[in-house]
Amino acid sequence: MSDILERVRQSARELPESEERLSHGQHTFFVGGKQFAQFRDNHHGDHKTVVCVRVSSLDEQAMLLEAAPETYSKPAYLPTWVSINLAGEHVDWDHVADRIAASWELAAPRRLLEAGGR
Q: What is the pTM of this model?
């Protein structure tokens, strides 16, 4: 688990003004006071290792869930987010980093986006 968390942490922490705090016992990443990613390992006994990220809309969420059910799932307690499966040998870490960055953009304050974002 620690190697997986470190990969998520590296992707999240390289983004401007990101910070990590525990939220409900989960490693959670914030920008401007808003969550943009949350690492979950066996959250509430679900036996999944995932990173949860924001999506732009329920339509995007539905599209991702339908297109790649082996990669994406709907996380508990986070509407308009998706969970990305981090278990197994074939995790596309570039894709995970891109989704974390896109989530950061959805949460980041306007001043960071106007300054060039990531």
A: 0.91
